[in-house]
Write a structure and sequence with these properties.
- This protein is an alpha+beta fold and about 260 residues long.
- Helix content is about 35%, strand content about 25%.
- The protein has eight helices and ten strands.
- A five-stranded antiparallel sheet has the order 1-10-9-6-7. It has a five-stranded antiparallel sheet with strand order 2-3-4-5-8, with helices on one face.
- β4 and β5 form a beta hairpin.
- The longest helix has 25 residues.
- It starts with a strand and ends with a helix.
């Protein structure tokens, strides 16, 4: 399976700074998105630490042969990497008063052959568009999701809740954190969307699906997603990573090959 990626982050319309961070490691088929929180500039420190740590540490492991590891071994490597990243952020927050209380949510994907391992902490999400069906592959670690699971509120009522951003897991908040990891089979034509809540809170799933199904490049789809979030208010930073799977590389014409 071959993959094409595109990543974009935007501050939105309300916030002065951008506390999101995105990383795409094409060589190791690794994508990471983090949504920071806590204090002036501290959120962007936490998210940048998380994405940089994962790219460096997990990327090195994958490059040294980890991409040939079993699903169990890959899952364990992801968990160890996030545990170490969490401790790094937690220690930095406790060592520097300016960073006190900082943390970050995170969603990541490792594409290996015809499978993808998706890991997440908090409410940053991963969706998959297969054909015309959009499915949320991650499940929010949030107070709101716990209330839905307990039957206290419905999905419809949750759309109007005022406490959407109260997460129950985040990197750097405590000395340990649990990464949820799930494996999914990849099929030809799949589009995977990794995003911060600045997108998912602003654009309903139907809107996400319509944009992902539209004609155009990954860059065009990504820009359309960011525009849709901003057109709906842009109340938070907006980050998007798109991954497109195809069984065979697209054949380029003679002119394209001549132009490189």
């Amino acid at each position: 399976m071959n993959f094409e990626y595109f990543a974009q982050t935007d501050p939105g319309l309300i916030r002065d700074n951008n506390e999101d961070s995105v990383v795409v490691d094409d060589e190791n088929q690794l994508v990471v998105l983090a949504d920071g929180m806590g204090g002036y500039n501290a959120g962007e420190v936490a998210s940048a630490m998380a994405t940089s740590f994962v790219k460096t540490e997990l990327g090195r492991w994958l490059q040294e042969g980890g991409n040939e590891a079993s699903s169990r071994e890959l899952k364990r490597a992801m968990e160890i990497c996030i545990d170490n990243a969490n401790r790094s952020i937690f220690n930095a927050a406790n060592a520097n008063h300016a960073y006190a209380g900082m943390g970050t949510t995170l969603v990541m994907g490792v594409f290996v052959g015809n499978r993808v391992m998706v890991g997440h902490v908090g409410d940053s999400r991963c969706y998959r568009l297969r054909g015309t069906t959009l499915q949320q592959l991650s499940r929010d670690h949030s107070l709101l999701q716990e209330q839905i699971d307990a039957g206290l509120i419905t999905e419809e009522q949750a759309q109007f809740a005022t406490h959407k951003n109260l997460v129950t897991r985040a990197l750097g908040v405590e000395d340990t954190v649990l990464l949820e990891v799930n494996e999914f089979r990849v099929e030809d034509g799949d589009i995977y969307l990794f995003c911060s809540d600045g997108l998912s809170d602003m654009v309903a799933d139907q809107g996400l699906a319509a944009i992902l199904q539209s004609e155009g490049s990954l860059e065009g789809k990504s820009c359309a997603l960011v525009d849709a979030a901003n057109n709906s208010g842009g109340r938070d930073n907006i980050s998007v990573i798109l991954a497109y799977a195809r069984a065979k590389p697209v054949r380029r014409g003679l002119l394209s090959r001549m132009l490189g």
